[in-house]
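User: quick one, sequence for these tokens?
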């Protein structure tokens, strides 16, 4: 059975991790599949946004520990999935298109890295989030930078890692790991509303938002301000932006304004196994 199922629906690329009953574990093979799916979506000009979800209650329980056990002391075999995982998180984070994570179940360990690397994280009230690596003698080293980028404090991150505390969806939102917590019965409707808004935006503006926020993340306020002026002037002088502003002032919609009318549900089967 394939680890990943991908389809395009009304401009939204939907990537489904399809082994929920096995924990959607990450190993060399599954990470390669996931990476290939993400590349295909990024490089497809018909894709405006990407949705990452699971086919069941478990979103992802992290790395496939059985594969590590089989690798034994073979450093090369262990190193490959670790490197693939690091590259996967960076691919999601740097993608020029918005990547949305839909969570309606359990997320543990490396699964939390996939979530933290996404631009928008939507969760049902029934989801849980846990970093349990220290129980096995390792640490979530690849996950931590993306947690910090989402705004969690270093002290709070230490606490969650040291205690392996399981967070509810509300607690995850309070700690900036989740953007929206939605009751399960409203999940489909409200997720569609979020994506519909994204589809009204200019694709280049979505990409520039990701690039600009990344570029100013470690700058002081003066340098960030100078960069902001330069970036705004660059965008305002684009012919397509000038036309969009003219059209808007005349009561017309920009050319890139598109409607999102998916043919398939976004919440996979109600996410029930």
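Assistant:
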């Amino acid at each position: 059975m394939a680890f990943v199922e991908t389809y395009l629906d009304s401009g939204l690329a939907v990537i489904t991790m399809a082994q929920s009953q096995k924990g959607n574990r990450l190993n060399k093979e599954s990470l390669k599949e996931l990476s290939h799916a993400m590349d295909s979506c990024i490089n497809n000009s018909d894709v405006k946004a990407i949705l990452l979800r699971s086919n069941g209650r478990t979103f992802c329980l992290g790395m496939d520990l059985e594969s590590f056990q089989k690798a034994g002391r073979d450093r090369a075999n262990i190193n490959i999935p670790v490197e693939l995982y690091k590259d996967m998180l960076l691919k999601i984070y740097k993608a020029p298109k918005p990547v949305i994570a839909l969570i309606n179940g359990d997320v543990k360990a490396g699964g939390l890295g996939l979530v933290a690397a996404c631009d928008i994280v939507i969760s049902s009230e029934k989801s849980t989030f846990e970093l349990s690596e220290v129980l096995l003698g390792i640490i979530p080293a690849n996950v931590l930078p993306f947690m910090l980028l989402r705004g969690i404090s270093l002290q709070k991150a230490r606490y969650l890692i040291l205690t392996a505390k399981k967070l509810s969806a509300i607690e995850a939102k309070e700690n900036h790991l989740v953007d929206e917590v939605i009751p399960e019965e409203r999940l489909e409707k409200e997720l569609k509303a979020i994506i519909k808004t994204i589809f009204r935006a200019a694709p280049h503006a979505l990409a520039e938002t990701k690039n600009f926020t990344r570029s100013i993340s470690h700058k002081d306020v003066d340098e960030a301000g100078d960069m902001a002026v330069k970036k705004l002037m660059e965008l305002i002088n684009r012919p397509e932006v000038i036309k969009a502003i003219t059209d808007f002032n005349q009561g017309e919609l920009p050319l890139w304004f598109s409607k999102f009318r998916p043919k398939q549900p976004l919440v996979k089967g109600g996410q029930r196994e």
